[in-house]
Design a protein that fits this description.
Elements (H helix, E strand, L loop, with lengths): L19 H16 L8 H12 L4 H15 L8 H4 L2 H5 L7 H13 L6 H24 L6 H18 L5 H12 L7
Protein name: MULE transposase domain-containing protein
Amino acid sequence: MSCHFLPRNANSNSNNDISDAERKKADHWFLGAIGLALIPTNIVESTWADIMDLYTPEDINATEFNDYLVQTYVDSDTSLYGIDIWNVYDAIINNLPRTNNHVEGYNSRVESNFPKHPHIYHFIELLRDEDLYQHHKAKESDMQTRKRKKLYTNIDSKLKELHEEHISGTITSVQLAIKCGRAVKTTPIKK
């Protein structure tokens, strides 16, 4: 995504004319934005201010993105969504899921099994079936815990390691955000 904020040469369709320093600066800016969701809530505002000062690409779209992020998520006084709503630092530290994919999976299951406007008796029958299914799943989970994919376990371990480095003073808040962003970012999708 950072490539969308790098200036383009008027005579060229690619951004091959971008210096490595500009590309690295834009990459740090983008990874820092991702990392905001993964750092302690009490340092989000100051960290993003530092990232904007240090790494924002010289592009009107980047400035608009910064304004949007601050107004919608980062400014604790005026943002649309409080930091506590979208930041997952506490979930990482407490070994909880960082996403709500399990909830979305349940909603998808219920939506696929329940018709839009069932007759009341059919609805009650479906609820009983769902209760039986959920009871079975609960019993199964008591016997066998579902293992997370190794990739996600490794990412969580890396995030915890980075937080420890930050607490010990080895890395700054800006470095923490950028490195956390890099830890969760997988390979970019090729167009």
